[in-house]
Amino acid sequence: MRRRDESMIQWVFTIRRATLSSALVLVLSLVAVRPVKSYELPVHFTFTMYLAELAGFTEAEAFEIARYDQAIDDNPATSPMPQISSFGVERRSAYHFINNTRGNALRADAFACVGAVGWLRRTGIYLHAQEDLFSHRTFGATAGHLTAGHSPDKPWYEPGAFVEMTNAKFQALSSLKAACRRRAPLTNVRFSDVTSVIEAWAQQEYAVGTVGDDHGPERWEALTRRLYGSRLSAYTVYSTKTYQEWEALQERNSWNEP
């Protein structure tokens, strides 16, 4: 009887160890894989800088807005990614899958127009959350878009949502420019040309199918070359490199800069 009890106890501990090991593997895989990063750097940083300049911000101002837009994904304090100490639901709810109350609060912070650098930082944070409303609108904060992998991160995953996001983002930037710089934004004539190009791209994406097509990145690059024109290298090479160097510095310093 004693030997039978000992065997039973050993069996129970074996099952518990296996369960804990499986759970640990799951958590570590969630942390190691990066599937919940919304529109990623080509949109949160590069496209943001482009639209900000189009709305009338200076290159330096546009860079600051784009820097803090992208940093929301890269800073562990605001990242949507699960971590060993936290599954990340609160961070995702605060910056990546916001509700109306949170959205209104972020908007109020941006439109407060207080402090030069601080205002641009808050603008970037607000824009990031607004952008994610479009790329994340069929997902929730509990698990992000883990089940869909990287697909929702790509503009060609849902081109119509990207067109809507572009319009909303430019209007927000224009309104912020007028409210906080006390100067009227640039005319929307140029932006109407931009939307025509993006809408044509979206129609092309829908024509070829947005699922299972391997040429989406090529068509996206062709779109950005047409949009950015002579500023292509400034956005995709030089400014991107400057941001990545700043990000590396932040990682070495444990993101001490807010």
Offer a concise description of the structure:
With 258 residues, the protein is an all-alpha fold. It has helices spanning 2-32, 41-54, 59-74, 89-95, 100-111, 116-135, 159-181, 189-208, 216-228, 232-252.
Structure description:
Helices cover 69% and strands 0% of the residues. With 258 residues, it is mostly helical. It has two domains: 1-32; 36-252, no CATH class. Helix 2 (41-54) packs antiparallel against helix 3 (59-74) and helix 3 (59-74) crosses helix 6. The longest helix has 31 residues, at 2-32. It starts with a helix and ends in a 6-residue tail after the last helix. The model is unreliable at 2-6 and 11-37 (pLDDT under 50).
Q: How would the blueprint of this fold be written?
A:
Layout: H1 2-32, H2 41-54, H3 59-74, H4 89-95, H5 100-111, H6 116-135, H7 159-181, H8 189-208, H9 216-228, H10 232-252
Helix pairs in contact: 2-3, 2-7, 2-10, 3-6, 5-6, 6-7, 7-8, 8-9
Provide the structure class. mainly alpha
Mean pLDDT: 81
Oligomer status: single chain
Helix content: 55-70%
Number of domains: 2
Point out poorly predicted stretches.
Answer: 2-6, 11-37
- Beta-strand proportion: under 5%
- Outline type: globular
Number of helices: 10
